[in-house]
Write a structure and sequence with these properties.
Strand content: 15-25%
Shape: globular
Radius of gyration: 17 Å
Order of helices and strands: HEHEHEHEHEHEHEHEH
Strand order of the largest sheet: 7-6-5-4-3-2-1-8
Bound molecules: pyridoxal-5'-phosphate
Number of strands: 8
Low-confidence stretches: none
Length: 236
């Protein structure tokens, strides 16, 4: 039997990159305005390296210790690291300076801690604010109205740079049903951008995962976080 296309990690990376490009072109967006974050939680260093060889330039991890130990093993690949998981305040110190972007700032207290630690380290940390777009009680993140209310206090943090918003919408039966959530995140970013606060940029929208990243790109995603469509289903 001939193996199906997209069997290897390399083929899946190529396929995902192609679908991102096609989705962007469908809505008249420049394909270069969308970046793939390959989500590598639970994925071995060897398999991550395979993805990098196939065209992955950013990887996303959601656990601090797991990410830091993989970083050491992959320094030579020059792949860039994004943090996408819930970040505890006591772990902020160990992530500062190691991640190009933290997608998951879900409270003012966390933003303040990152600002404080970044100042102590002498850097400026790029972050996204995580929005609980579906208003789910089980999920973290800013509710849209809270975000609008709190964001001006973040403009005073001189050592973080807010680059945009991130969301994990509620589970939907199909990709199309996620569209209104993605659209809502984009509208929220437009609303925040209109207030023109210093150090608050709304250039990035991190939205879309394996099941719905094409719809997210059609709705304006600039970063899509794709795991299982590249590395296969996870046990954990
Ligand atoms: C695991 C994870 C993803 C990727 O999910 P897939 O469905 O495997 O693509 C994206 N974003 C976050 C925050 C994650 O934790």
């Amino acid at each position: 039997m001939t193996p199906p296309v997209e069997e290897t990690i390399a083929e899946r990376v190529q396929s995902v990159l192609w679908k991102i490009r096609s989705a962007a072109e469908r809505v008249g967006r420049c394909p270069e305005s969308v970046r793939l974050v390959a989500v590598t939680k639970t994925v071995s260093v060897d398999r991550i390296r395979e993805g990098v060889r196939a065209g992955v330039s950013i990887v996303g991890e959601n656990r601090v210790q797991e990410a830091l130990s993989k970083m050491g093993a992959l320094v030579q690949t020059q792949v860039r690291w994004h943090f996408i998981g819930h970040l505890q305040r006591r772990k902020v110190r160990s992530v500062i300076g190691s991640f190009e972007l933290i997608h998951s700032v879900d409270s003012l207290a966390l933003a303040s801690e990152i600002n404080h630690r970044a100042e102590a380290t002498g850097i400026r940390q790029d972050v996204l604010l995580e929005v609980n777009i579906g208003g789910e009680s089980t999920k973290g993140g800013f509710c849209p109205e809270d975000l609008v209310r709190t964001i001006s206090s973040m403009a005073t943090f001189s050592h973080i740079r807010v680059k945009g918003l991130m969301t994990i919408p509620p589970p939907t039966p199909d990709a199309e049903s996620a569209r209104p959530h993605f659209r809502e995140l984009r509208r929220l970013a437009e609303r925040v951008a209109a207030s023109r606060l210093p150090s608050i940029m709304m250039d990035e929208l991190s939205m879309g995962m394996s099941n719905d990243y094409e719809v997210a790109v059609e709705e304006g995603a600039t970063l899509v976080r794709v795991g299982s469509a590249i590395y296969g289903a996870r046990d954990a």
